[in-house]
Amino acid sequence: MNRVVLTGIGVVSSIGIGAEEFAAGLRAGRSGARPISVFDTTGFEHANGCEVVGFDPSRWLRDLDPSTMGKASQFSVAAARMAVADAGLAGQLTDKRGLVTVGTTDGESFDLDRLVETEVEDGPEAMDGAGARRVPAPLLSLSIARELRLGNVSAYTIATACSAGNYAIGDGFDAVRSGEVDFALCGGADAMCRKTFAGFYRLGTIAPEFCQPFDVDRKGILTGEGAGMLVLESLDSAVRRGARIYAEVLGYGLNCDAYHQVAPNQSSIERCMRLALDDAGVKPHEVDLISAHGTGTKANDITETRAIRQVYGDRPPRTISVKSMLGHTMGAASALGTIACALAITHGFVPPTINHRVTDPECEIDCVPNESVAADLRVVQNNGMAFAGNNASVILGKYTPGEPAVNGLAPVAVNPAAADPRPADNRSEVKR
Amino acid sequence: MSSPAYAAVRPVITAWSAVSPFGVGRKFFVDGVLAGQPTAAPLDREQWPGPDEQACLVPDFSVKEVLGRKGTRSMDRVTGLAVSTIGQLLHDADGNRVVRTGEESALVLGTTMGSAQSTMDFVRDSFTGGQPHHVDPARMPNSVMNCAAGQCAIWHQLRGPNTTLAGGGAAGLLSLDYARRLLHHGRAGQALVGAAEEYSTARAWLHRHSGGTTVLGEGCAILLVEPAAAVGEGRRPLAEVLAVQSRFYLDADPRRALAASVRDVLTDAGVRQEEVWAAVGSAVGEPGEHEHAQLRALFGDAAVNRMPGADLLGDTGAASSALRIATVLSVAERSAEAAGKLVVLSAVDPYGTAACALLRLAD
Question: N or C: fewer beta carbons within 10 Å in chain A?
């Protein structure tokens, strides 16, 4: 079995586009919250969200016409192109055997919203054909292969809702680990849509202004959008070509509550985290940081922190929520969370949980309120939980050239270039 | 994806069921396949006020009638198809549970986009209600693509990995490969694998506006896949999955990608082209004609003619390649000649995937 490392990151988010801006945003505790503009919010008493602003798809698309793609696909393709360039692999994947998999909650529901609006106003005969052709969910992944002209990949979309990003990363990890593929391009993407906003609003779980996970006064989620894509490859491959290594993927866990469509289940979440720890070969006390699912709803935050205390004991690792900054980016959420973990390891800091005033006594964790802190992180875990009880936890480890893996796996021979944390020149060929 | 991976697990199909235009359950499916009876029929335009005159529907399918009233108040059609297909698979004809589930049971369910009808109905209320948030909260989960897989888990206590794989027409074969990977890495002891697609007015309109001309069908097929070395008590392999390969195809031309995938599965399994007994395509309409022409060129007319055509059930979208596996298993069940034979299954999806699987039918 190969050791698997993360060598390329692509990010489209409300707090920054690209790995560098995203890392700076996480470190600064930037907030993506603003009034929603992507759909008409007339009639909603409050309508803040974490939109991606200043995103110009034509900067990232060379082959494909953006008008033939839904917004989620535009995000996924842009993030994929960034990730491949960041890995120093631009133009080098055409014939390489690979897996492309993008997690999503809503696919191209933004387009579906508009098709329904047309139907309501002018009848179903008037629906836009281009819009109809954009909506099949497989396109979130296939568009990446099309734009990057990847001629030897399997490409599909994992639609496991709000843990789908971690599902996709886990799938990529397994495919690289067993040597089935030379690389995996995996992550998650979603575009904000009226459907999901209206649904959460109706459930009373949309916060009026901002998202404040673990706070005693938290009022719910903000919907968000974006994409996070990762390049995974074997450690041997990365070392051989002198790639910068952000982190090693140590393992992951998946399970299903089989309990309730919407409500979380504490014991099942515990089991998911234990599966991930076992798979990664690490003990609970070795985990330095948990990036929680941390939506900012009453139910999630209490259930999740209780599950964490069951698994990690009375002094659990620091447990943060990047959703405080990014909102809930749905299918992108756990991919962006895992990327945040990798950047935290690489740059030596813990991203904060912003908008925090008083920790809920029922959420007995240190959420690193408001200000990031410097830290040497060796093992970091990212949680994703979804409607339908789909849980997925991913565990990353710090990679130190020449040393055994943090879970004790043997080291490999090291090319000194791999130790250079600075991007190589050829990694910044994408226009910014 | 490659032979070492398959050799490591030796995944075998040990049970299956289908809910299809042939009827609810495996027996109806086998009978329908063997009879070769087309299923397209005029639509009741009151129930289905869309653009279609005809479709291939599961006859008289009603979630409440098939599954009962308890827990089905808000259940949509595609969820009902999947929950009932798995229910059929897990129980014998007398309703006795014959397959255990729980933490070791994965579900990998293929789709195109979940229920387009549920998703569009949900947001429609936001446009037509008195207030934009006047949507039906009980139906919100239906508007998310993993609804069917999650409900299957709740109904049948599937606590392992629970994956909804959006792969269009290739979803059945992609799900099989994905499930093999789960088993290989020890993430489940057994996997229920398949795909579901519902007929709906919303899907019909999207299909029409996308330029689709095929007669739409619906259905769900689910396979129980286990490692050959760990087949549950009372079951025996019906077929071994020797290899699955899939490729994105460039420039809207699936032929090279399909040829490469066929070549790869044969090479991976160490099988010569002339050893393949049957070759089975999944697409219908014009893409299906191209797919079948390519299979004829590769494997000869006799191999392609051994299975009834894919168009009996209409364009079943994501469910198509899973239903084709069920077709192969149906023929195998009633044909002494099929024992031990090699079968190639292909799928060509309009969105960009060509996929291929190689099965060896049980002796």
Answer: C
Going by pLDDT thresholds of 50, 70 and 90, the confidence category of residue A34 is: very high
Tell me whether residues A124 and B248 touch, CB distance under 8 A: no
**Nearest C-alpha of chain A: how many angstroms from B339?**
30
Amino acid A428: pLDDT: 37
Higher pLDDT, B9 or A432: B9
Q: Which of A108, A155, A268 sits opposite B353 (nearest CB)?
A: A155
Query: Is A162 tagged catalytic?
Result: yes
Q: What integer is the mean pLDDT of A200-224?
A: 98
pLDDT of residue A423: 43
Count the neighbouring beta carbons within 10 Å of the beta carbon of residue A395. 29
Question: What domains are there in chain B, each with its CATH number?
Answer: 3-230 (3.40.47.10), 239-361 (3.40.47.10)
Ramachandran region, residue A186 (left: φ > 0; alpha: ψ -120 to 50; beta: rest): beta
Residues 6+ apart with CB under 8 A from B61: B19, B24, B77, B80, B81
Token duo for residue A80 = 């994929």
- DSSP single-letter state for residue A12: E
What is the Rg, in whole angstroms, of the alpha carbon atoms belonging to chain B? Answer: 19
CA-CA-CA-CA dihedral for A286, A333, B107, A185, to nearest 10:
-90
Look up residue A379 and give its DSSP letter.
Answer: E
Asked if the Cβ–Cβ distance from B167 to A388 is below 8 Å, we say: no
Contact (CB<8Å) A257/B159:
yes
Average pLDDT of span A44-52: 98
Determine if the pTM surpasses 0.90: yes
Would you state the pLDDT for residue A416? 42
To the query of whether residue A256 is one of the catalytic residues in this protein, the response is no
Q: In CATH, what number does A4-403 get?
A: 3.40.47.10
CB A6 within 8 A of CB A232: yes
Give yes or no for residue A420 having a pLDDT over 50: no
Among the partner-chain residues A120, A132, A258, the one whose CB lies closest to the CB of B124 is A120
Among A153-162, A220-229, A386-395, A407-416, whose mean pLDDT is lowest?
A407-416
The token pair that represents A352 in the structure block = 């904060």
pLDDT for B4: 62
Distance CA(A283)–CA(A306), nearest Å, equals: 18
Q: Give tens-digit pLDDT for B118-148.
A: 999 999 999 998 999 999 999 999 999 999 9
What are B21-46's pLDDT values in tens digits?
999 999 999 999 999 999 999 999 99
Distance CA B74, CA B140 (A): 10
Task: Tell me if residue B258 falls in helix, strand or coil.
Answer: helix
For the cut 80, the answer to whether the pLDDT of residue A418 exceeds it is: no
Q: Domain limits of chain A?
A: 4-403
Residue B9's Cβ-side half-sphere holds a number of Cα atoms within 13 Å equal to: 33
Distance (Å, whole) CA B52 – CA B211: 13
B321 close to A (CB below 8 A): no
Confidence of residue A410 (pLDDT cuts 50, 70, 90): low
Say if residues A390 and A256 touch (Cβ distance below 8 Å). yes
| Residue A133 to residue B184, Cβ atoms within 8 A | no
- Asked if residue A123 has pLDDT above 60, the reply is yes
Residue B68 region by backbone torsions, left for phi larger than 0, else alpha for psi between -120 and 50, else beta: left
- Residues of chain A contacting residue B247, judged by C-beta atoms under 8 Å apart: 151-154
Contacts of B290 (CB under 8 A, 6+ apart): B254, B255, B283, B348
Comparing CA positions, the residue from A303, A327, A174, A182 lying closest to residue A251 is A174
Q: How many interface pairs between A and B have CB atoms less than 8 angstroms apart?
A: 258
Distances (CA, A) of A68 to A132, A152, A351: 10, 23, 37
B26-35 vs B320-334: helix crossing angle, rounded to 10: 80
Catalytic residue among A186, A272, A328, A356: A328
